Amino acid sequence: MKMKEYKVGLVGVGAVGTEMIKVLKERKFPCGKVHVFASRERDEKILDETYHVMPATEKSFDGLDIVLFAGKTDVALALKDAVVKAGAKMIDNSRAFRQDPEVPLVVPQVNAEDLDWNKGVIANPNCTTAIMLEAVAPLHKAKGLKRLVASTYQAASGAGAPGLAELENQIHEYAEGKKLTVKAFQHQLMYNLIPHIDKFDETNWYTLEELKMRNEARKMLHHPDLRLSCTCVRVPIARAHSESLNLEFENDITPEEAREILSGSEGVRVVDDPLNGGYPMPLDATAKYDVLAGRIRQDISRDDKKGLDMFVSGDQLLRGAALNAVEIAEHLIKRGLV
Predict the structure, then answer these.
(1) Which of 60, 192, 299, 330 has minimal Cβ neighbours within 10 Å of its Cβ?
(2) What is the CATH number of the domain that holds 134?
(3) Do 91 and 170 fall into the same domain?
(4) What are the tens digits of pLDDT across the range 55-69?
(5) pTM for this one?
(6) Residues recognised as catalytic
């Protein structure tokens, strides 16, 4: 029996949009050629194939089943009603709907069941939250997460193509003895770390990126009282984010238990052989589907066995954005919701 073919649209053809098309092809998603939309009409070569890009308007979505949004927040807000009216499912990668109580915020390995109450729109979480929860959610389900303190090490490409280009340009400029150009970031990134991602909230001096991680984790884990604090740092890495996590649980947990739980969890690969150089690194996570989890150890600052420390790395363009969006689409089909 031939599998049904779905009509898929894509709004936005930047780094994430390109990655979405790549993942659809890699996973043999049951669709024909993707209908691509952007701000203006043009022909554009994406992954060695030419697409006729059409302007994204309120009339663009008739006849489509699923529309992936990889563009700006204001575009998602402006076109949401048109997608829903056309009867398509909107999977949005911007921050437009993440905290909307009417919109499920989903990583399928974490909370696929939330797809069942969607009203036509599903939100992709912030990539840093998605990477963190791939590894944290299985432990929470087993032991009950009480508190989490995170420090992130976020790649230049997390700021989009301009961020990656600036890091690469600074490397060349340094090698040539030139003054380094600083535009995409607040400070020079090469040979530096910048503990500043997104705007500061002047009521508590956390950045919006840090607050997103707390608020999104609470929503996705259905844990409104989760105590979570984080510091987000931009690092001179091309691609793949890493995070240092300190976890406190309601119940005792040992590193051995954590490794066993994570080894059986979809979307996670345990890399935890430190004596032989086995631990998560962004270079190894780049272009990989799984989040790498390692450096799993008991928290020695505590007198009990309710605390763990862990380090994770994940490709933010793939695992944290494009792959998650495509997996949401796959789960909508699996659950008979499209």
Answers:
(1) 192
(2) 3.30.360.10
(3) no
(4) 999 999 999 999 999
(5) 0.95
(6) 127, 241
